[in-house]
Write a structure and sequence with these properties.
Largest sheet: 2 strands, antiparallel
Helix content: 25-40%
CATH superfamily of the largest domain: Cytochrome c-like domain
Strand order of the largest sheet: 1-2
Number of domains: 2
Strand content: under 5%
CATH topology of the largest domain: Cytochrome Bc1 Complex, Chain D, domain 2
CATH class of the largest domain: Mainly Alpha
Shape: globular
Structural class: mainly alpha
Length: 358
């Protein structure tokens, strides 16, 4: 064997030794991880900005690819509940436009809540959350169910400990927030980022009303549209791109209250009986209806507004006060109105792979 061959063998062994050492050490053992999150702009039609403005974003929680990926994983993770049986998605199901088809969600101890779980749709434009408006941000909204004694029934130190000991989460938190030491604020920020991506503006109503394609409606749906914006007067509260005005109103469900809603939060008697106006987007999927789930069908809801409003209810909204004698809809008009309400369904929203469990 000549000297040239010996040199090649020696060099080859040296390179092989380096490769083995790198494999053993792992790619990041002696390297500093890089925190460089990629900004994510939530996509929605340009006409939304005309009616509702651009989705606001907190200055301390910019939406990023890494943050949304982390929030999506957390949203579906049962580690957040005390007995590992419940996640955010347990009460906000994608098939129901991220609402709960049960009258009341059931906590980890089997006890039911006392209000229907609201749908998570276009919440990035909202500034008050829950039926009673007790939280002013998505981040704070995401905080409550974890510790609620009739929901996940957990405590944040236990949640953080579970996530910290998980082999995947510390790295994901670093990519999203630049820290491997997890805390509850980072958890709720990530969930809020994911929830801001849950936008829905692709219904047949949108194609007709905002994009001008009149061919997508049947004659019955067109009649229902005319009722919605006319005789039935629905658009005073369910308006523009969001199909809600984000206000809190007493719509005349009861003459006296067992749940005072907003009044419990503000302490003002003039707010008793007022609840947040929900969006009508995907309304056919978000049954049952009202804060107490008293109606199971859209037909029942229409009947209520037609002739069952309690006009003597304290703090009754002015729009309800105007229908003291009822809407007096005919049987056909009720059918037409329900048909129109179903055009708010956005099937692409509930089949979007980016919203599903990772």
């Amino acid at each position: 064997m000549n000297i040239r061959n010996i040199s090649c063998i020696t060099l080859g062994c040296f390179v092989l030794l380096l490769a083995c050492n790198k494999k053993e050490d792992g790619p990041l053992k002696n390297e500093t991880p890089v925190f460089n999150p990629i900004p994510l702009s939530v996509s929605y039609p340009s006409w939304v900005k005309i009616y509702s403005g651009q989705m606001p974003e907190p200055t301390d929680n910019a939406t990023t690819v890494e943050g949304v990926a982390l929030g999506r994983k957390l949203f579906y993770d049962k580690k957040l509940s005390n007995d590992l049986s419940m996640s955010c998605a347990s009460c906000h199901k994608i098939d129901n436009a991220f609402s709960d088809p049960r009258a009341f969600s059931v906590g980890t101890n089997g006890a039911p809540g006392d209000r229907n779980a609201m749908a998570i749709i276009n919440m990035g434009w909202s500034t008050k959350f829950f039926w009673d408006g007790r939280r002013p941000s998505l981040e704070l909204q995401a905080h409550d169910p974890v510790t609620n004694p009739i929901e996940m029934r957990n405590d944040w130190p236990s949640v953080v400990s579970r996530l910290q000991s998980d082999p995947v989460y510390p790295g994901m938190f670093f990519k999203a927030f630049g820290k491997t030491t997890i805390d509850s604020n980072m958890v709720t920020k990530a969930i809020a980022q994911f929830e801001r991506t849950l936008v829905s503006f692709n219904s047949r109503f949108d194609k007709f009303y905002f994009e001008g394609d009149t061919s997508v409606f049947s004659d019955q749906e067109k009649r229902g549209k005319d009722l919605f914006f006319g005789k039935a007067d629905c658009n005073h509260c369910h308006s523009d791109a969001m199909l809600t005005d984000h206000a809190f109103r007493n719509n005349g469900l009861d003459a006296s209250f067992t749940d005072i809603g907003l009044g419990k939060v503000t302490g003002q008697s003039t707010d008793n009986g007022k609840f947040k106006v929900p969006t009508l987007r995907n309304i056919a999927l978000t049954f049952p209806y009202m804060h107490d789930s008293r109606f199971t069908t859209l037909e029942q809801v229409v009947d209520f507004y037609d002739h069952q409003v309690k006009t003597g209810s304290p703090n009754l909204d002015v729009n309800m006060d105007q229908i003291k004698n009822g809407l007096n809809l005919t049987a056909q008009e009720k059918l037409d109105l329900v048909a129109f309400l179903k055009t708010f369904t956005d099937s692409s929203f509930i089949t979007n792979a980016a919203f599903m469990q990772p």
